[in-house]
Amino acid sequence: MAGEDVARAAADWLVLTFADWLTFCVAGCTRTDMLESQSVTWCQFCRQTPSGDHGSTSDLEPLHQLEAILPEYEHIVCSYEHLQEGGFNASLKLKLSTQDEVQEWLEAFQASSKTTWRVQKTYPNTPESIRHNKYRVDLRCQRGGRNPSSKKNTFCPAVLYLVLKKDTFSQSRKSRSNDPHIQDCLSFHIKIRSTHNHEINCSEALQYRHVSKETIKKIEKLFESGHSPSSALNTLKYDLQEEMGESYVLASADRSVCPDLHFCFRLYYNI
Ligand SMILES: [Zn+2]
Ligand SMILES: [Zn+2]
């Protein structure tokens, strides 16, 4: 091999090694591998079927139930219990590592499940809690709560508990978690009791939803290009009609994508 070839091969090897090193350094609990794909699978640590048969109907049924309401993320199902009174309890885990990612997941979940959740309890960081959790919040269905005078309150008992655990990479070697989920970067833990006592897909439920961040952004852009509240709303409705076709009637009843004029006015004067 000529000296030049040897030098080139060595340079190639160095580049490759540097790229490998870089990949190694950024590897850890990132979500790069899970964008744009939805999958709901049983947890390999919690779920043990003696036959190893994960394809039976009874095994797949809960996954299909969850797929119908979950957003496009890779969800790992640690437990699922069908409840006699209707609904289910489930415990899920995801490879998310920041509070912003958790908020994004919550936005996406509210859109995919056609439900709206309100904060019921927060957990301020204490020296003790910060050793285990980065973020924790309890949510309840917006049609629950203690306010009996609210027209939309059906005293819905559905709850959603979110915990973002510290991952192994942010802890010292000594205090590394023994939990195989954490070691596998499954740091975002969800417990859901899906026992809504009201219709979910009906237009009555949809009209009380929060206006989504995406919709707010669209309206703000229209304001920036000179639209008034009413012309912005008309444009939004027109675009929605183009986009949804026959499903427009249902979509237009969904406040998260099609707010009322009053909302547009308030947004307009807040800017
Ligand atoms: Zn598990
Ligand atoms: Zn509910």
From TrEMBL:
**Which PANTHER family does this chain map to?**
PROTEIN B, PUTATIVE-RELATED (PTHR35385:SF2), PROTEIN B, PUTATIVE-RELATED-RELATED (PTHR35385)
Keyword Signal, does the record have it? yes
Q: Which UniProt keywords apply?
A: Signal
Give the organism's phylogenetic lineage: Eukaryota, Metazoa, Chordata, Craniata, Vertebrata
**Signal peptide start and end residues:** 1-27
Protein's UniProt name? PH domain-containing protein
